Amino acid sequence: MNGLLIYNKADYKKNSDYVKWIQDMAAQFGMKIELVFSDDFYQHGYEKYDQIQFAINRTRDYHLSLILELNHVRVFNQSTITLLGNNKLAAYRHAKEQNIKYPPVRLDWTNQDQIISKPVDGHGGEGVQRLSELKVSDFKNRIQQTLLTNLMGDIRFYVINNQIIQAIIRKNDGGLLFNYSQNNTCEIFEYTHEHHQLVHQFLHGLKADYVGVDFFLTDEGELIFNELEDVVGSRMLSDLGINNTTELFLTHIMNQLKGA
């Protein structure tokens, strides 16, 4: 089976080891995965599209997924997931439709020290600030939300084929962000049946091939939806000695292509 692994060039520089890892492991499954950069794809197309059975989109660009899907290429993740993972408003609308709490999106911007501002398409904590400290002139692609102050941490539920395979809680020292890349700590989270049910409630109507579903954990033990990460990494898992996610993901791809 032949497939594409699509990256932005900037992201590839930070993830070249992962690319080699997934290509080498795919070869053990009898799969050939070709690395393609999104800039080249948009500039020149891909004339050998009839020779590929699937594509792994790691660009966060749902337009690219749609182009491939319209040409009958199975994309992991599908465009619907990529949209939810990179448009926070769309993700909150989905959460609302599933009756799941999320930090309120504000129309009233008074008391700015208690409002957090973030890019609609942001990830990794980039561009997240208190509204009172923000120095930008264009708010078109930003959203304002109530700042939650009673948080114990942020839980990432790793999901393959709509099934939770692991959960990690990230903690910080009292700052705004819980991202592991911001030098915060993480540990395995022992989730309950109620947590399991809530994650699957969020996933209702979705086909999640390999995602991270993030929930804030409050001091009272309540889960509040944070975001969906469609280009989920494995750094936290690897640092905790868990290294089977790539194998599980490739097994899922094989099963999907075989119609399992």
Describe the protein in words.
This is Glutathione synthase/RimK-type ligase, ATP-grasp superfamily. Residues 144-248 form the ATP-grasp fold RimK-type domain. Helix 3 runs antiparallel to helix 4 (79-86) and helix 4 crosses helix 5 (88-97). The chain is 31% helix and 27% strand. The mean pLDDT is 92. It has helices at 9-28, 38-44, 62-69, 79-86, 88-97, 193-202, 235-239, 245-257, and strands spanning 2-7, 32-37, 54-57, 74-76, 115-119, 129-130, 142-146, 151-160, 163-171, 185-188, 210-218, 223-229. The chain has 3 domains: 2-76, Rossmann fold; 89-101 and 149-239, ATP-grasp fold, B domain (D-amino Acid Aminotransferase, Chain A, domain 1); 112-146, no CATH class. The protein has a 5-stranded antiparallel sheet with strand order 10-9-8-11-12. Strands 2-1-3-4 form a 4-stranded parallel sheet, sandwiched between helices. The chain has a 3-stranded antiparallel sheet with strand order 6-5-7, with no helix packed on it.
Could you name the key traits of this structure?
single chain; 260 residues; alpha/beta; Rossmann fold; D-amino Acid Aminotransferase, Chain A, domain 1; 3 domains; five-stranded antiparallel sheet; four-stranded parallel sheet; 12 strands; 31% helix; globular; ATP-grasp_RimK-type; ribosomal S6-glutamic acid ligase activity; Glutathione synthase/RimK-type ligase, ATP-grasp superfamily; ligase
